[in-house]
What we know:
The protein is an alpha+beta fold and 128 residues long. 22% of the residues lie in helices and 45% in strands.
Amino acid sequence: MRIDPIDFLVTYLESVPEILDGSVLGDLSSHVTGETAVYLEHMGGFRVVRDSMDRVDVEYAAYSTDRKEAVDLALLVREKFLEELPDTAVGGALVLDVEEIDSPKYDPDDSSREHVYCGQVAVFYTFA
Length: 128
C-alpha cells in the first residue's frame, strides 16, 4: 500500500470542528512559536496482513502557550482517534481500528517554552 498515514490523519483532524483551523500540522516546519498546534509524527509500524492491512504508530503532540489548552487539545485528539476514527474512510484509507500505545503526557518544549502534551496510537488501515 502506498498511502501516507500522516496525510490522511491530518485530513481527518482538520475535519474535526472543535480543532482550530490551520492548527493541525504534518510536521513542525510551519509551526510558529506561540500558536496552538497539533503535530503528528510517524513513529514506525509494519504490514499486518500480507498486502491488505498496515499498522502505523503515530505520536501526536499538542502545543500551546496555555497549559490547559494543550492538555485539552491532546485529550480531544486522543478521544477522536480512539472513539471516532475507527471505521472511517479518509484520504484513500479505511481505518479499521485504533489502539492506544501511550496516553498524553506532559513534555514541555525546552527551546520554545511552550506546553506540550504527547500521546501515541497505533492505527490499523487498508485501502478504502
